[in-house]
């Protein structure tokens, strides 16, 4: 392969970057990869074989291999490393070259970079990539945002390497600026929520019903064959059967109950609060990851409150059926919250995101892919301007049909003292959203009482303040 003939370059040859390079090459696109770590460069050389791949050991060599206008993708840690790579690249670039950030960058950082590079006549794409190592190698869901012209430059590559559902690639242009990274952020927020809900269902069966790992496997396997089918349910099924190489015991029982996080769930909650969009299931999931970090305090509290988690007084088979239906309702409500946030953010930030397209590209490759996304896509195709999926009649029917089981599950968890904040938050969201009246009149009265914040009335228009009797 001669100089200036490679279609795209990749900076960052960790597992994700290397796998995407090989994915691109497998689809016939000549790729050049670069990393400061010589061992990673050599690993790509070995693995590439006779594919149209070149591994460069210096930045000038890397740049010289790319056709113009150049397209360069970065897969490096979010934050300062992205700015450092851009700073090193920029002196080597020419007007109209395209720089792509494929990491989990904060969307406001992406907006800053888009503007800064545009001033230098360079184009910047913020591209969310979901699917982990396997997805990068064999087909991820890809969420690009930035200048439309820049997307068109790399569209053939991205469409080729993306996951396919019904023959359609799980990638589409989402909008200007940070649209792609914002959609990826919300994807990860939904992911937090779904993982918390699944963990709570696991807890209700493990501690509440005394199920062992084989029985848990069977339950999740059954769920994955029905309406709950999706990637996270599928991998949960497999986890319960995984043996530990060292002890032969089931690995899940040997993993410390402290869950880590990289910030995307927190960013989702924070921006939802800024936009005044309620996403309580995601908020609960972020809070519970924080709670897991208090291991020593939780252990001490367990000795003070020994009856904190009791067995469920329920017939197991019947409760598992109710739990599956309740979990499905909570899962749907988590997607509802995420899509509601995307609607508001798209309007506020001028993205113009088509939510039906988001649901379509999430159906394959990504971590939150699930059967329900087809129904979500269909709902937004029927009504592209739908503000909230709970306004859709088909979703209303699905939720109403499962509501009694959902309430039973939440009641059982509360009675047994088994924490289920995600399930409870999802049910609370539903009950609040469907309420034509909420007790916020009292809240407004209190605010006016102590702070003269005023209120509105139901019987006449205007803004009012009362001199409350404070005797």
Blueprint of the fold:
Elements: E1 8-11, H1 15-26, E2 31-34, H2 38-48, E3 53-56, H3 59-64, E4 71-74, H4 80-89, E5 98-101, H5 107-119, E6 123-130, H6 132-138, E7 141-145, H7 148-161, E8 164-165, E9 168-169, H8 179-206, H9 213-224, H10 231-239, H11 264-275, H12 280-292, H13 295-304, H14 316-349, H15 355-361, H16 372-382, H17 393-416, H18 421-433, H19 440-451
Biggest pleated sheet? 7 strands, mixed
Query: What CATH architecture of the largest domain would you give?
Result: Orthogonal Bundle
- Annotated CATH homologous superfamily of the largest domain: N-(1-d-carboxylethyl)-l-norvaline Dehydrogenase, domain 2
CATH topology of the largest domain: N-(1-d-carboxylethyl)-l-norvaline Dehydrogenase, domain 2
- What is the number of beta strands? 9
Q: Structural class from helices and strands?
A: alpha/beta
Mean pLDDT: 95
